Amino acid sequence: MVTIKDKVRTFIVDNxxxxxxxxxxxxxxxxxxxxxxxxxxxxxLVAFIEDNFGIAMVDSDVVPANLDSxxxxxxxxxARAKALAA
Amino acid sequence: xxxxGGYFGSIRDAEALLTRMTAAIAxxxxxxxxxxxxxxxxxxxxxxxxxxxGDGQQPMxxxxxxxxxxxxGEIFNYVELREGLIAKGRRFRTSSDTEVILQLYDELxxxxxxxxxxxxxFALWDNRHRRMVLARDRxxxxxxxxxxxxxxxxxxxxxxxxxxxxxVSAEIDPIALDQIFTLWAPIAPRTAFRNIHELEPASxxxxxxxxxxxxxxxxxxYPHRDAPSKVTNEDDAAEELQALxxxxxxxxMRADVPVGSYLSGxxxxxxxxxxxxxxxxxxxxxxxxxxxxxxxxxxxxxTEMASALGTHHRAIACRPGDIARVFPDVIRFAERPIIRTxxxxxxxxxxxxxxxxxxxxxxxxxxxxxxxxxxxxxxARVRRFCGRQPASRMRPQLFRRLYPYLPGxxxxxxxxxxxxxxxxNTALDDPLFSHRPRFKTTAAAKIFFSGDLxxxxxxxxxxxxxxxxxxxxxxxxxxxxxxxxxxxRFLLPGYILxxxxxxxxxxxxxxxxxxxxDPRLVEFAARLPPEMKLxxxxxxxxxxxxxxxxxxxxxxxxxxxxxxxPDASSFVGAGELDYVRDCLSEASIxxxxxxxxxxxxSLHEKCRTQPVSGFRDNAAFVGILSTQLWQKNFTGxxxxxxxxx
Lengths: 86, 645
Prior knowledge:
The complex is a heterodimer. Chain A is mostly helical. Chain A has helices at residues 4-15, 39-53, 64-67, 70-85.
């Protein structure tokens, strides 16, 4: 079964690492500090979350605390998905 | 303004080699060609006649025949230097500035260099001391490259002339590529070509048999950050600046041919054009580039300024497809990979000047370096401001004010702004503090480097290399002056004056002249207190004040719009040219060996399908494409034909 974390990782590898699977990206690595994302990439990431998980992101959601690593992204998406399902 | 080549040492077929070298740089000097061959030394020259048209042929020898020079550029204060030499009893056979260098060298040897106010590179064969002297202007306006082969020193205005030397071939220098993909340009003396070097600005090389010595004859220096400024009255400073700038333009109007001016619509070229318009007996001719996209276009300001000055104004439109069409030529002339397309419209612009029948134009380049005009200076100030209160949610909002033209940044939260600009974790005493975000963002494009290239680089760090070359006094300067030094000492000669400057202008035989880089003006600006240059977040404050009576208010008070051109979007989409597909194909990338072929294919597809590419993706796309073109141009592989698909 494909998990949220798998989907997030696949998106990041495809779009920000251009398919380079040799890049050692841990779940907790900062996407900004490791130069994986720039300001345009944040907008791409928001579009990905909204399009694929049906989550409407308000401005206060778009912060590094929610989006700056695979782990944070997965947690954020999971929490919102649960809230939506409830 | 011209081009030259030559050698020092014993070679065979000297005449034939010099002919080949001259032919390779004929675009720099379409008016005349000449050669000089002596035992163990030779010079070749391609001339663009600007001063001393009838009697300034080169290579030129002195009366004794012991000194012979090949010279590219202009000595703007040659009239005053000539008068001084005549007062000492010297006689001149020509009216040219070339002979002034010869006679001044005869008097002072290489100590003559600090007296020259000009944009120059020259090779001087001194038969008395059996030495070849190579020299270059302070700021690096005119280029000079060299290499050695079998004990012979070869030199030329462009590298393509050196590639005519038997046994000298083009091979990419991986370190230079890393520097370009981090700092935007190689750190001189390194060039993109392995084993071919650049003489650094403000330097002289003296080659004698068995020995080569290089030394700097001028240094860019700033006052100690705690020293009381010698310039305290702003009105006086503005007055002095206006006088200096007026004289800098006056000297640069010296030519036996008409002098025109670039007019971008910004403060710098407007000031230069305004001063020039008041000095020319004829109507000043001005030139500009326009863009279809409002994001890049400044035509409204250009029209307003041309109208205010009454110039004969011509503009060339850079339309979708134009950048891609000329890009292979741009790389052939730039002779290095580049990560932005901005040189391409300037290549078009110099073509327009040529069509208009002019050979010489003034430009406003240099003002942003000497008077702190670039966004990077303001950005560093805001980052320091934020760094003092990392928890502040108000301070990072200032970043939005700095970059109104970057929509991606405008939409970011305060938290992301802080993260992108590293406000919470940046060492304020980092010598590269001002430029770290730019270097870091650019270096992100190295994600496309192949495994082989990474292995060849062995963990090399271009930014740390740069930091290791800073002068001892650097740490004692004000942070703004540190940032200005980084721009002026490295990016100005390495990119602005070369890839965007000399090489794009000389591709069409056009000589650019830079009043803001007059050495008197550069030294004056360096002495000014930082707040006279960057006042709060208003750039070039003192220049605006000095220009008070020269420009319409709308031009004088404009916030700087950085000169940019569309990057990846210039090459993709409908009408994509064959060479772009060829250069970026998996087979071509794999053959080049420098980049990850699958990743590049993915980037190419992303740029095709997404209308807005971020900085990293744009830099990577242009950098990879230009590297591929460089490889094909200089290593002998054929470039795909530039025709629409």
